[in-house]
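Might I ask for a little of your time on a matter of protein folding? The record follows directly beneath this note:
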Amino acid sequence: MTAYLITNVSVLGAAPTDLLIRDGVVAETGVGLTASGAVTVDGTGLVALPGLVDLHTHLREPGREDAETVETGSRAAALGGYTAVCAMANTSPVADTAGVVEQVWRLGREAGLVDVQPIGAVTVGLAGERLAELGAMADSAARVRIFSDDGHCVADPRLMRRALEYVKAFDGIVAQHAEEPRLTEGAQMHEGEISTRLGLTGWPAVAEEAIIARDVLLAEHVGSRLHICHVSTAGSVAVLRQAKARGVQVTAEVTPHHLLLTDEKAVTYDPVYKVNPPLRTAADVAALRAALAEGVVDIVATDHAPHAVEDKECEWAYARPGMLGLETALSITLDVLGPRWDLIAERMSRTPARIAGLTEHGHDPAPGAPANLTLVDPAARRVIEPTELASRSSNTPYARMTLPGRIVATFLRGEATVLDGKAVK
């Protein structure tokens, strides 16, 4: 195993120091370190963060390898500073059995770029009718602990209650796609002034907020862990704040695009801006930013959703919802929060690792800690070119935007997966 000596680097914005990485851990820190045979990485001007962890990634394999594979998605994640991602279950076949989640887990291990932790489906085929093999997936080699029908809401309250009760046996968590389907039938974008002007069927904010309100009550009643995917409205923030004040075991995520973009983008009719849940108003964006800083919203999760060309470059009504996110998430979060490195580490590494039970991840670079870390150049600014992204798809809403920060290196258990901004393999 290669040893690395990172010199003159700032750990979470502190004074520059050296980091010696050896045998998969941070072996030593201090000024003026030397290490015979180690590869030296100049960290001058760089900030070291714990490797990022994403609780919401769509890798598309098995079934839609034309849009993404575990390998290409893993490479995009490493280039974005991630050392672990949680792969959503809406593959084909659906990850609703031990066999499918083990397949995804093994593909991640073979790629070796990030730790790929599968998320299991809550219901068979994401159909919302009967529970999937939750226990079998939990007992599999993949050790699934998060279950979600993301892309579909577990709309039946009795089924949702049963799922919350079931996962308590192995300290699991149900991650809900909060959308009351009877309120969003035919919806194309956020319901509001712009949808009315464009003549597009709107998705009301209450469709999200009503499910969150219902599910925090169910989680409180059952005493189980609940996670809310891609929160997008100010009203959702208010529900979450009240639930947390009561001690409900609920966590929530926000995506980078919901922290930056608004429904104004829909006036272009460019399907790259079609996403589920939809882009909301400037007031919602402001509420989400404040909630993320406060901790009412616990983490940033990408909802990285690659799509093949034919699924995006078409009329708005027929386009699949979703955006790329892995390679730009840190830049967007840095733009939103500023260089508050400890807060960024909390929202993008420590807390998501804790929610997912990924005990090797989310550790600040310190002696004895697993060497899962990323080095970022906060002074760099880069223009996003879709053709230069590692993902197999190119549906980024940030095309040709100039964003702050650049990932210089990423290390997974002491092995470099990215050096000088390029994937090692």
